[in-house]
Fold these 2 entries.
Entry 1:
Amino acid sequence: MTQACHRKCVPPHYKESELSKGECVCLDRCVAKYLEVHERMGKKLTELSLQDEELLKRMQQGTGTA
C-alpha cells in the first residue's frame, strides 16, 4: 500500500521538502481505498469461514461423528 500510493501520488523527483495539498489528498484517498478493500475482504473471509464451519458441523451431524 505504501509503495503503491507513493508511486501514484508523489512524483519521483521532489520539488519541495513537504507534500503539496494535491499530493496529500491523493495519498489520503489512495490509503482510504486500500483500507476499505481490506475491511471488505476481511468481512467476506469471516463470512466464508463461518459458512465453512456450519457446513462442517452439518456434515459431521449427518455422518454421526462429532
Entry 2:
Amino acid sequence: MSLSPAAVAARRLLAAASHSSHEGGARTWKILTIVLAIPGVGICMANAYMKAQAHSHGQPEFVPYSHLRIRTKRFPWGDGDHTLFHNSHTNALPKGYESSDH
C-alpha cells in the first residue's frame, strides 16, 4: 500500500514530534488558548447573556406541597421562618411568597 506524499510528510512530522523533548508544547497550548479557549468563553458568555434577556424572571406559581418547606424548629435568626440566605423573590415561605410586586 503506497501513501501519498502528503501522508508520508505528515507521518514523518508526527514521528519526529513524538521523539522530540516536548520543547514546543508550551507554545502549542498558548496558541490553542488564544485561538480556541478565549473565543469559546466569549461565545458562551454571549449565549448566557442572550438567554437571560429572553427569559422571563417572574415568580412561578406557588404550590403548597406537604414535603417542602417543613419547619419543625424555628431558625435562630430573624423571625425564625426565613432561611439564612432567604431571597423573597425566589424563595417561598410555607404559606407562599412574601409579596407579588416584583
